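G., the chain you wanted modeled:
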Amino acid sequence: MPDITITLTTLISVISVGFAVYFGIKSKKRADDEETVKKAGSVIRLEEKIDTLTKSFSDFATDIKLEIRDMRKNFDDVKTQQAKQEATIESILNRLDKLEGA
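Predicted structure as tokens:
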């Protein structure tokens, strides 16, 4: 009879260790799956932020290009007005020279 008791005790121990290993592996797998889901969520949030920043930068670059274009147009207008004023001043000076010479 003592042989059966030892065998039964050993069998119960082996089954207990087997269940412990099984549930330990299952628990680790569940934890790994949860960690993977969290990391995937983080990656998605980072990608959304990068997309937002890229769009903001693109909009900013477009705004700067428009500002530069407007500045060039204004500069060209100023240059044109300056040329007209120089021509007017030259004409006035020529008239003064003629009046002084007359």
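Residues 2-101 form the longest helix (100 residues).

Shout if anything looks off.
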